[in-house]
Amino acid sequence: MKPICFALALATLATPAAALEPLAQEKYINDRLVAARVADRIRRTCPSIDARLLYAYGEARKLKRYAQQKGYSNAQIDAFLDSKEDKKRIYAVAEDYLTRNGARKGDAESFCRLGRAEIAKKNVIGSLLVAK
How far apart are CA 36 and CA 67, in angstroms? Predict the structure, then answer.
């Protein structure tokens, strides 16, 4: 009886408590990456808005630590960030957000309006931007 209990206990310890969802499905991480892409598009298109680059760098480091603390390995994180498919998906979500919120290709002022609104909301996107 003891060997069976020991084997069951060992098997329980060997399996993770909860399997990690793929990083592409981890909402918090994906939402932050989409916000970063939106902020980047705004700052590159609007001449009167700039990025808070040091702050953004710090937030990127926090996001990586968050993923590591959830149990993702550096290899998993790097593979996710290097994935062309995931990058295209994140960019598409960001472009959809921009369009739905009034940003129009070829209209820098529409990006500026959205950028100023995001800064005023003090949300994740706005926290990555600063008016010049």
Answer: 16
- Write out the chain's pLDDT in tens, 132 residues: 444 434 344 443 443 445 789 999 999 999 999 999 999 999 999 999 999 999 999 999 999 999 999 999 999 999 999 999 999 999 999 999 999 999 999 999 999 999 999 999 999 999 999 999
Task: Output DSSP code: residue 129.
Answer: E
Q: How many CA atoms lie within 13 A of 14 on its CB side?
A: 6
Cα of first residue to Cα of last residue in the chain, in angstroms, is 73
Sign of CA dihedral 17, 19, 23, 26: negative
Distance of alpha carbon 33 from alpha carbon 50, whole angstroms: 18
Q: Give the integer Cα–Cα distance in Å for 109 and 119.
A: 15
- 107 in Cβ contact with 91 (< 8 Å): no
| CA geometry: angle 110, 95, 83, nearest 5 deg | 145
